[in-house]
Design a protein that fits this description.
InterPro entries: Beta-barrel_RND_2, MdtA-like_BSH, MdtA-like_C, MdtA-like_HH, RND_pump_MFP
Order of helices and strands: HEEEEEEEHHEEEEEEEEEEEEEEEEE
CATH topology of the largest domain: Elongation Factor Tu (Ef-tu), domain 3
Largest sheet: 6 strands, antiparallel, barrel
Number of helices: 3
Helix content: 25-40%
Subcellular location: Cell envelope
Strand content: 35-45%
Coiled coil: 114-172
Shape: rod-shaped
CATH superfamily of the largest domain: Efflux pump adaptor protein, beta barrel domain
Protein name: Multidrug resistance protein MdtE
Strand order of the largest sheet: 3-12-15-14-13-16
Domain Multidrug resistance protein MdtA-like barrel-sandwich hybrid: 75-210
CATH class of the largest domain: Mainly Beta
Length: 374
């Protein structure tokens, strides 16, 4: 009968356990060694990017807006008297000469006033003749001593009153004739009718505009410009103009008037450009494109792909030339243009900026440049 030892430290019982512990330690060491190798490989792996060196360049931008050809001088035409329209001789777009008849009112009321004023003049003339005869008689009588000074003075005063009444009647007749003439609306200058606001049979009040006349002569290109445009500095007041429908038809102009007030509805400012020797094709109402250049200045321009974000602020990835690692640098954007962005502040000449591949970068990550340094 074999007797087994009950001692827990018996080497016969602990030998299998010791072997198991040694095997586990070896496996753990191997696993840790593999993890360290992968971490080292990850840390040393560089991301392929494309970069460029920041260099400010002289840049002269231009701004093009669309406007309309308008006459330098325009007038709203209206009747000076009330009445019913009985005739209209022109329509929008018609060219008229000074003195041409545009429309007529029914002259019956004004003609009646003329007739009444004419009768009043005839009556005043008759009264004046009587007053003159009375005065001449009293003048002769007082010289002979057959009348009194009071009667003579009354006759003289009656003569002056009759003369005044005749002058007033003549003035009223003149006013009535003028009113009769105002029933005919005539063009005040050579030009083109650009608007019409009456029809035959319509009752129009005095001073209500019924036609708009664009006078022949000087032309302006009128633009509605957003206020932000004025934040830039133009190279000059010269503007290059071209018809939108026919870009080959061009002209030059100069800014002559900038409205001091902003339109409340469109939030724009009206700018008028005088056209020098406008071509015949630049007719009233034509759409025209006006281009003005801004002063040349040194700007840092980068492609859109270079722009990232640091929180809520714009930023770009820069590469340290010594360590070849990436860092995110906040910048201030001056303007956005087609395909590129203008950097106002935040970068210095000579810095290397990532322009492609930045989406895969993290701070401190090593990078390698595609095709070498650019």
């Amino acid at each position: 009968m074999t007797t087994q030892s009950s001692n827990p430290t018996d080497p016969l019982r602990t030998l299998p356990a010791a072997k198991a512990l040694v095997a586990a330690a070896v496996l753990a060491g191997v696993a840790l060694s593999g993890c360290n190798d992968r971490a080292a490989q990850t840390a040393t792996r560089a991301t392929l990017v494309r970069t460029t060196i920041v260099q400010p360049r002289d840049r002269q931008a231009s701004l093009t807006l669309t406007g309309e050809i308008q006459a330098r001088f325009r007038a709203d035409l209206s009747f000076r008297v009330n009445g019913r329209v009985v005739a209209r001789t022109v329509d929008v777009g018609a060219h008229v000469n000074k003195g041409d008849v545009l429309a007529r009112l029914d002259p019956a009321e004004q003609q009646a006033d003329v007739d009444a004023a004419t009768a009043a003049v005839a009556s005043a003339e008759a009264q004046l003749r009587v007053a003159k005869a009375t005065f001449e008689r009293q003048k002769a009588l007082i010289a002979s001593g057959f009348t009194t000074r009071t009667v003579y003075d009354q006759a003289r005063e009656g003569l002056r009153t009759a003369e005044g009444m005749l002058e007033a009647a003549k003035a009223q007749l003149g006013t009535s004739k003028d009113a009769l003439g105002y029933t005919v609306l005539r063009a005040e200058a050579d030009g083109v009718i650009t608007a019409r606001n009456l029809e035959v049979g319509q009752i129009v009040p005095a001073a209500q505009p019924v036609f708009s006349l664009a006078q022949d002569g000087e032309r302006d290109a009128v633009f509605e410009v957003y206020e932000s445009v004025f934040l830039g500095e133009a190279d000059s007041r010269r503007v290059t103009l071209a018809l939108v429908s026919h870009p080959g038809v061009t002209a030059t102009g100069e800014v002559r008037e900038i409205s001091p007030a902003i339109d409340a509805k469109s939030s724009t400012i009206r700018v008028k450009v005088s056209i020098e020797n406008p071509p015949g094709a630049m007719t009233l109402g034509s759409s025209v494109a006006g281009t003005v250049k801004t002063k040349a200045q040194k700007d840092i321009t980068l492609p859109w792909s270079a722009l990232m974000a640091a929180g809520r602020k714009p930023a770009v990835w820069t590469v340290d030339p010594k360590t070849q690692t990436a860092s995110l640098k906040p910048v201030t954007v001056g303007a956005y243009e087609a395909g590129q962005v203008l950097i106002k502040a935040g970068l210095e000449p000579g810095e290397r900026v990532v322009v492609d591949g930045g989406k895969l970068l993290s701070v401190g990550q090593a990078v390698t440049e595609e095709g070498g340094q650019s």
